[in-house]
Give the backbone structure.
Amino acid sequence: MSVNTMDINDVYQVLNDLHEQATGQKAIAPTDTASFVSMANTTLQAGTDVVFNALMQMVSRTIFSIRPYSRKFGGLERSAEEWGAIVRKISIADTPAEQDEAFFGDALVDGQSVDHYKIKKSNILEMRYYGSNAYQNRYTVYEDQIKAAFTSPAQFGSFLTLQTQNASDKWEQWLEELTRGLLANTIGAKVQLNNGVIHLLTEYNTATGLSLTATTVYQPDNFAPFMRWVYARVKTIARLMSNRSNLFQVEVTGKPIMRHTDARDLKMYMTSSAMDQMETQVMATTFNDNYLQMADREYVDYWQNIESPNQISVTPSWINAAGAVQTAEAAVTANNIFGVLFDRDAMAYNHYLDRTAVTPLNAAGLYYNVFQHSRVQFMSDLTEKAVILLLD
């Protein structure tokens, strides 16, 4: 089901699918991103608690494994004021120049006047974004049943902290994975439309007369000169994006919207494996502090699935030439993704109405439940500039 309605979209199923792929529990699979736009011995021969059947009743030392997690792609988050509820985006398309009536034409004629009140309306494009996604998390806190598993109130309190931190970590990762889906949707849509897609190896082979592949390019003799060429190519693309034009963007309803992306508004997400090779093979011998410094950049360890890091397979949606939301009829697969350059307004998300609610104590079972609720909006605007870099 598409999220592009006024209804709240139930996103937990696609979230679970993205989570399984991102954590390696499931192989990469076509994912309907248009529906919203994880070795140890676990047992011990000892008594366990009656609730989880996993906690030993008494031990001499307990280590609580807590490590807070912060989501990636945080640079795409916007405030509710910038992006929340129903948002409309108004742009003005250029209109053509006219003949200067003060010097040319038949305007200045004896006995006649020039009408300086003739109307020329601005060519307005208004786009509306609405629809949101909702999901929840919950866990149960027991008052007395598992206290036998701990040697002191402090240990019991640490266990409760462990539960709370786990809920927070999941919350961070879930939002990260939905944002990863937003990125994959944009990549899939751009590939489907063949708009702003740069085939780096094809261009490099044409320029040099070589026949490198996505495998042979990583050979030591090939990689350093290739990456220097890529660096120059990316700089050229970034400069092109800073020019006011309709390059690397789609046009809707026949309105030619001219946009430009200054360096301060340019975001660059690059495949981390290639960047790691660049830092060791290129920058180690030719140190340059300015490598890929022209934009707000982030390295991406994987685009959709942790076991297929440079690939996506999604069913994307986009706004078509008629100004309507369109969804691909089949899954779009992109391989050898090298990076994405995009304007800060091309992708964004806002999570709002986050709320934690606690039930009263169950008098019979001596437990209570904690619920976490969230609503999230994701925005992908292909009328803004975005470039997909593929290593093919």
